[in-house]
Amino acid sequence: MQKKGVLLVNLGTPDSPSVSDVRKYLREFLMDKYVIDLPYIARWLLIHLIISPFRGPKSAKIYQELWTENGSPLFHYGKKVKGLLQNKLGNDYTVELAMRYQSPSINSVLKKLKSQNITDLVVIPLYPQYASSSTKSSIEKVKEELKKINFNTKVRFVENFVSNPKFIEAFAENGLKHWSTGKYDKVLFSYHGIPERHILKDCDNGHCKLDDNCCSIYSTKNTLCYRAQCYETTRLIAKAMNLKEGEYQTAFQSRLETRARDPWLKPYSDIVTADFPKNGIKSVLAFSPSFIADCLETTIEVGEEFKEIFHENGGENWQLVESLNESPLWIEALEQLATK
């Protein structure tokens, strides 16, 4: 019997929070030319001699804090979503989950799909906004592994789902649980940052200005602009929540500047967070809409580190909006993406 396949691809997670496993994960992740686009030798020296040895133990402590009895939340919810989507799509589909880095590998999962006589394959990188360091990297890896195993099937790639109504509704639903209490002065939409040069490479049509005016309209001219996609996500969620202008702000987190004069997307979330209390904003509701499941960047960075920064600067109430995880609306969004 012929079946259609759905391959969900997320970034990945260490196999355990041990220093050795975290170092292994960091090396594979950061050696990706789409993540750190330095020449190979320079990238190898930076990752193997500086970042992995020194950042490994520190990152392992953070992963130990993040880890639960179910293991990595990213992987735990990935498996849950895989099962829920399989139930939603029924027997005509086979749904699988792979990680761009570490386990389960894209290669091993594609081999599994090939053995099941899959005739049509939909690949959904689980990154709402397209970026070369996440979406493109995952798509190119899938293409590479398909060739390696001689898996000749019809493939459709979902490059982003910024405007998917169910995706927007799912985040808005989570946010309204908190916002409707009336306890918050401001909503912060914090997205994973990337170097500005990545966007300029993706948008080499001369249109991209990397400013709020340029990103205020999402169109065919800036369809590959990660920053414009983030601002569009903010606008759509804000509209679904009936937020007014001035009640929300977009910013960017997780910067890793490896070169002098190498700016990442602005404004920076940690600086915006520190400035909120100085401007009379004492209670903040924080989203991370570039992540669809609990992970280090949401639970630890936004949920704990930004909360500490906020309180240190005079803030009183900081609340992280939970990720989509296994939200029924999120499963409906994936169903739409898989079958459209």
UniProtKB/TrEMBL annotation:
* Record carries keyword Cytoplasm: yes
What gene is this protein translated from? Answer: hemH
Its function, per the record, reads: Catalyzes the ferrous insertion into protoporphyrin IX.
Q: Where in the cell is it found?
A: Cytoplasm
Per UniProt, the keywords (alphabetical) are:
Cytoplasm, Heme biosynthesis, Iron, Lyase, Metal-binding, Porphyrin biosynthesis
Fetch the InterPro entries from UniProt. Ferrochelatase (IPR001015), Ferrochelatase_C (IPR033644), Ferrochelatase_N (IPR033659)
**Under the GO molecular function aspect, what terms does this record hold?**
ferrochelatase activity; metal ion binding
User: What catalytic activity does the UniProt entry give for this protein?
Assistant: heme b + 2 H(+) = protoporphyrin IX + Fe(2+); Fe-coproporphyrin III + 2 H(+) = coproporphyrin III + Fe(2+)
What is the name of this protein?
Answer: Ferrochelatase
Per the record, the pathway is: Porphyrin-containing compound metabolism; protoheme biosynthesis; protoheme from protoporphyrin-IX: step 1/1
Coiled coil segments of this chain:
none
Any Pfam family: Ferrochelatase
E.C. designation(s): 4.98.1.1
Enumerate the residues binding Fe(2+): 192, 297
